[in-house]
Model the fold of this input.
Amino acid sequence: MKRGIIATPGIINRLPKGLQMAGSLSLDEMRYYALYWDNVVIPTNNLVHMGLPQEEAFISAGAIERPNVAFNGSYEGEQVTNAVLSCQSIVAKELVKDKRIDWVIQQFNDELIILDDYIEERNTLRIDLASCLPVPTGEINIHDILNFKELRKTELIALHEYLDEVYQQALLFPDQTLASKKAISNLTRAIEDLDKVTQEGFKEYVKHNLSTVFNLYKDKIGEGVIMDLTVSALMGSPIVPAVTIGGIVSATIKISMNSTQTFRPADQNLKLAYLSKAKKDGLYK
Done:
């Protein structure tokens, strides 16, 4: 199955009488999206448009899409803020219905920020990858990224598959011994493999963080594992403390269970959100 994200064009904060653009996506973050996901949708609107680095080149290469959400009438103050903040949810609400693609929303925050109309409180399993995902940087273009993506398709698919596998193992074995389970070993190997091939293909790259928020209230996963039998065992945190990945400086994996606000239209999906801090760690040459 293809994997898609619906992302915000940057960090948007509420203000008492409007909004603040706290920062737009960087070129490295654009490359990060294009490399790790098959479909990247970054909505815009007819009230406030946030441009992106090399936007036209990314669009023409098929690396991203920028659907326009049209609002009618006049808007001011908090109305503009709510309209802009709702764009991601409006587009995501329709896309998550398409089960041919594993659609997930993405934000550059520690917690999901969405309007009340789309919020639901849920118990979730969160897998944090810190300084784990290499992304080429420097004097390269989007076609270099896409060519590398095609050549290293196997390694990129493995990363997503082993991330899902860790989730399944956490449900089956909700205890501290998960750190030694095969799923963790497979995920760390996938990250190390990606690090190796990125070093071979590019002179410079940066390391990105990723937090994946998984659903704990689906009835079943895989071939019939009943999830609600494990929810009580997962209460409390963390399930697994940070696991350092051998050979990669500062790279860690952490698994925890939380009650958190999630995107209501995706309440039947396996994954509920991707979250990243608005920074990347390290420049490697």
The mean pLDDT is 82.
